[in-house]
TrEMBL record:
It comes from Amphibalanus amphitrite. The keyword Nucleus applies. This is Spliceosome-associated protein CWC27 homolog. It holds the Pfam family Pro_isomerase. InterPro entries: Cyclophilin-like_dom_sf, Cyclophilin-type_PPIase_CS, Cyclophilin-type_PPIase_dom, Cyclophilin_A-like. Residues 18-165 form the PPIase cyclophilin-type domain. Keywords: Nucleus. It is found in: Nucleus.
Amino acid sequence: MSNIYIQEPPTNAKVLLETTVGDLDLELWGKEAPRACRNFIQLCMEGYYDGTPFHRVVRGFIVQGGDPTGTGEGGESIYGHPFKDEFHSRLRFSRRGLLAMANAGKDDNGSQFFFTLAATPELQNKHTIFGKVAGNTLYNMLKFEEGDIEDDRPKYPHKIIRTEVLLDPFDVIPRRKAEPTEAEKKEAKPKSKSKATKNFKLLSFGDEAEEDEDETIEATKKFSGKSKSSHDLTDDPKLSSAPAVPETARNSKRTSEPEETVNMENLRKKLKKSEAEEEKPDNYRLFQGDDEKKKAQVAEAKAEFEELKNQMLKRKQAAVKADAVAAKKEEPEDDAIKEYKQQKAEFEEKKKQLPKRGASSREAQTMALLEKFKNKLHRAKEEHVDAPQETTAGGDDAEDVNDDSWLAHELHFTANDPTLAKDASTKADDWYDIYDPRNEMNKRRRQADAKGKRRKDKGDL
């Protein structure tokens, strides 16, 4: 089982399903199946799966859900149309607890999904695997098999209570549903066609109220669209319905009033403009001198501030110099310190003369110094004369060498150790022992050896 987990790629998304059988921790492969994971995560964020049942359960095979209708024929993807399958070589139906898309054919994925309850190799390359059930929540998933099931339909189907996205690699934002139009709102709430009726028999004065109601209905029909007054509604002879002012005079007055108001407003605007134009030059003359005075005062204050600043800097620099001189006088300097300071000053002076880093002349100067050193080295070798040098017991220190003779010196080592063995990698002719029995020298040696052997034998006898 461990080698199966090693072959599966790592997950990068996580979703929690709260169901009636318990929580299910789902880990998704967002890189291997991006379309399916994005679809599932966005539907979870929008609450699409909340309250949906697991409408199909096949023991030892799969548990299917994700259909809001609960029939197995509903559901829609976030793309508005079925999306394509996504197969991966490292994702296989080899165990239980896998999460895959349910479809009715090739490239027909919507919102429905299923969990595997065992190894289902017959589904390979037919359904998109995009997640798995993680941890101990796998045992909650196995509870789907419990209960009454008839024709792959549970009698009391389990449901998804709610979903929660714990890790989202896509930064998905839930879609905003369009607000219903006024026509849709009217269709959603149809008005009742039956008219309300008043039952006057329930009142103690029902007859009188019914007569008043009839009179008001007739009056509304007669004067619909017109304003009503007490002249129209009552039959009082003291009241006259004739207007006190003729309509023609009233209309002429109404038309003349706006013109008069417009003329008055224009006159007021003109008067305000003339007053502003008259006051503007006087004000300008009055405040012009004040502005110039303020500017002069500001400039004078700035100059005074700069002068004080320069004086403070000069005092500070003078104090630093005085402290440095006093420190030099107080410290007794010996010859070594004087020489060190002198060399330091020389090097600092040379450093100031060097061009800055990054300048084109810096590289040219470096090459010139290198060429100068090469010439000096070559000249020292030519001027060097091979002569015996006296060596002291302690050797020469760096301070004892004041000339450039060291530039022409060569280091040689003498091999005083005896050779203990020949080097097999460099075999010469003397390495091999050549013995030729036909050689005259070898014949004489054999004869001499034979004579010596005979004499020895005679002496022993």
